[in-house]
Specification:
There is one protein chain. The chain is built from 31 helices and no strands. It is mainly α.
Length: about 725
């Protein structure tokens, strides 16, 4: 220990001979131990995530991300902007590796997120320790255990944050070693320069919020009074790479992700008001982390209300006050500028897609919050009597315990998507995206229960009744949620369409038609609304209107595909997710019912082109061709159905009738027998089997008659 160390002036009894704080540990073993404690605390606090499922947007990033399936997808992750929702190739590469290790099991993805978060905290501690920040270990522990970080760690999609954070802090740590910050030497250690640059590039490939790293280094060097032109020149490559990636991300948010429109039409003054209020909001949540919400209320920003200028005024006042003090104490100003600087991309000056729902989000300050945490901890460390070290450690431990418990509780909010949306609505009833998405969840579950009830009704009618009752309850809840959505956002076209679908299932066809008309008025390109309206019109015996709407749904889908391709949103083009198949199927059935069999057969053929293994399309085309007298085509289609769905009695039944039409009673008989083995109560199969056997009997009599020996003349 150097002679200048303040603890040297204390007696052994005063400082505690066996009390070694983590930031004073000299040996590698002690540093490893304290680093392991950080990791262990993080794993304990986030342990509930081992039971968590995927939530919102995780489908686009993991479960439905086609780029994770093969080597071609891995190549496109790096070479093609628009192949993934955002161009963060390192993140998607990690997902690619994990997909090939454990598929779509959410446990693995959650565990990796937690480990990355813990590792980022360790690297933060090492960087702060090198800067000789008082209470560096405690600050890193608060970073790891603060409940405001839960959103970034518990949300698989936000792998972007935790991976970028680890590489961001690692790059800073490496640059500090390059700049010899701790050793008070001016000669740089060039062996650490390229590693720092590489880590920075990796951070940018994870999330471009890390572009602030070179500016952070300028702040640190200025704080440590080591800023020179040589250092600025050394940082120029960092600035160049960061600016390039930041501009690319901004362009993608605007042109590919879709951050443009009425929600983003803000004046410069409105953006200043948003920035000031957001900065104060984030600082408040750091100090008092209560009522944390996945989606916060979206403020009404009005420059005419003078009180709204109090927020940017407070921020500017704080900067000015700290600037005055900076002639003697630079650290506080550096901490606050770091906080605001790393927040800048999320303060409303740049358009990002989540601004559609709210101007703030917990995950936006994943990297930023540590600035204020370090400032508060360092001030306490400087001002607290060094003789009360045990008390200091006790209070620090109590704080970490409280934060850990709050984090542990907050992770339960992310257990699954329904829990997340319910918690959001409980705290922010105006969150229309939450009520709409929860309504969709309820609608899907209602449909699944109804289908299950139909499948077991014959064998267990009592249980089927329970399923139907629960299905109706969920349907009613979905209706309430969709109506809550349109109350908060009257122009939500899809919510009106969803209300129409629920009313249709409840039997209110007129009410359903009115809601679907409103949905189409709000969004003339709403393919789902056209299809749903067509279904309602069929139920109301308006087949010509239904046929027209099914065609409109197909046209709207094709228009949407063209728009997606023009914007470069290739990640949204999933060949397995083709809603137009349903629209075409509905169109084909409507045409067939109206006797337009040739056109119906063409529609079904188009479905087969899209999905060569679509058994339903073969089945419907076979029926149409059978009615048209195209027996050969009908036979081929029904045979394909039995190959694709070998346990479907209807496929065998219609194949048997097609064989009868072809005069193949001998071949039809075993086909009908197979159909009855699958469903003994199939009347069409029973009738077909009877007809086949009658035909066989006639054939047998005919053969017997034609094969009887003839008598010669004159013989008895």
């Amino acid at each position: 220990m150097s002679e200048s160390h303040p603890l040297n002036s204390l007696s052994s009894r005063d400082r505690g001979s066996d009390l070694v704080l983590p930031d004073e540990s000299r040996s590698g073993r002690e540093r490893f131990m304290w680093g392991a404690v950080l990791v262990l605390l993080t794993l304990i606090a986030y342990s509930p995530l081992l039971k968590a499922r995927f939530i919102w947007d995780d489908d686009r990033y993991v479960t439905h991300n086609r780029m994770l399936r093969d080597a071609e997808g891995l190549k496109r992750i790096w070479t093609e902007k628009g192949a993934t929702p955002q161009y963060y190739p390192l993140v998607h590469t990690m997902f690619w590796v994990e997909y090939h290790l454990w598929g779509i099991n959410p446990i693995g993805y959650h565990l990796v997120n937690v480990i990355l978060h813990a590792a980022g905290g360790v690297m933060l501690w090492l960087a702060l320790r090198r800067l000789r920040v008082p209470g560096a270990w405690l600050a890193a522990a608060i970073f790891l255990l603060h409940p405001i970080q839960v959103e970034s760690v518990a949300w698989v999609t936000e792998r972007k944050n935790v991976l970028a954070g680890l590489l961001f802090f690692s790059s800073i740590w490496a640059y500090l070693r390059f700049a010899r910050i701790k050793l008070d030497e001016n000669k740089p250690a060039w062996g650490w320069y390229l590693p720092s640059l590489a880590l920075f590039a990796g951070a940018l490939s994870s999330k471009t919020i890390a572009c602030s790293m070179p500016a952070v280094m300028v702040l640190i060097l200025w704080w440590k009074r080591k800023l020179s032109w040589k250092q600025i020149v050394a940082l120029l490559p960092f600035f160049a790479i960061g600016l390039f990636m930041a501009l690319g991300t901004a362009a993608m948010e605007r042109n590919i992700v879709g951050a443009g429109g009425e929600e983003w039409a803000l004046t410069p003054m409105q953006r200043i008001l948003i920035a000031g209020r957001a900065a104060c909001f984030y600082a408040g949540k750091l100090i008092w982390p209560v009522h944390l919400t996945f989606i916060y209320p979206r403020w009404w920003v009005d420059p005419a209300q003078i009180w709204q200028f109090a927020f940017p005024g407070a921020v500017l006042g704080a900067i000015a006050g700290l600037g005055i003090l900076a002639w003697r104490w630079r650290g506080p100003l550096v901490a606050v500028i770091y906080f605001l600087g790393t927040l800048t991309p999320a303060l409303g000056f740049f358009d990002v897609y989540p601004m559609r729902y709210s101007f703030v989000a917990d995950h936006f300050q994943y990297l930023s919050g540590i600035g204020l945490v370090v400032l508060i901890v360092a001030l306490i460390g400087r001002c607290w009597p060094k003789q009360a070290r045990r008390t200091t450690m006790g209070l620090g431990g109590a704080l970490l315990l409280v934060l850990g418990v709050l984090t542990w509780r907050q992770t339960h909010v992310y257990a699954d998507v329904q829990t997340l949306w319910r918690d959001t609505l409980a705290k922010n009833p105006a969150a229309w995206i939450a009520s709409y998405n929860l309504g969709l969840e309820m609608l899907d579950e209602s449909s699944a229960l109804a289908a299950e009830a139909r499948s077991i009704h014959a064998n267990d009618p009592e249980r089927a009744g329970e399923f139907n009752s629960e299905s109706r309850r969920m349907l009613g809840e979905a209706l309430d949620l969709f109506r809550q959505t349109v109350r908060n956002k009257p122009d939500h076209a899809r919510a009106h369409a969803a209300i129409g679908e629920v009313l249709r299932q409840q039997g209110d066809l007129r009410g359903a038609l009115a809601e679907l008309n409103e949905s189409i008025r709000l969004n003339p390109d709403g393919m789902e609304a056209y299809n749903m309206r067509g279904v309602v019109e069929l139920a109301m015996d308006r087949p010509r209107d239904a046929i027209a709407d099914f065609r409109r749904a197909i046209d709207a889908y094709e228009k949407a595909i063209r728009q997606i391709e023009s914007r470069g949103q290739r990640y949204a083009l999933n060949p397995k997710s083709r809603p137009d198949v349903l629209y075409r199927m509905n169109l084909g059935k409507a045409l067939a019912n109206e006797g337009e069999l040739d056109e119906a057969a063409e529609v079904y053929s188009r479905i087969i082109e899209i999905r060569p293994e679509d058994a339903a399309a073969y089945f419907e085309r076979g029926k149409a061709c059978g009615r048209l007298g195209r027996v050969k085509q009908a036979l081929a289609d029904f045979l394909k159905v039995t190959q694709l769905r070998p346990d479907d009695p209807d496929g065998y039944t219609f194949l048997g009738w097609a064989l009868l039409d072809a005069g193949q009673g001998g071949l039809a008989e075993p086909v009908f027998i197979r159909a009855l083995q699958l469903n003994a109560n199939n009347p069409k199969a029973k009738e077909g089997l009877k007809r086949a056997r009658e035909l066989l009997a006639v054939e047998s009599l005919f053969k017997a008659a034609t094969n009887r020996p003839t008598t010669q003349a004159g013989q008895p």
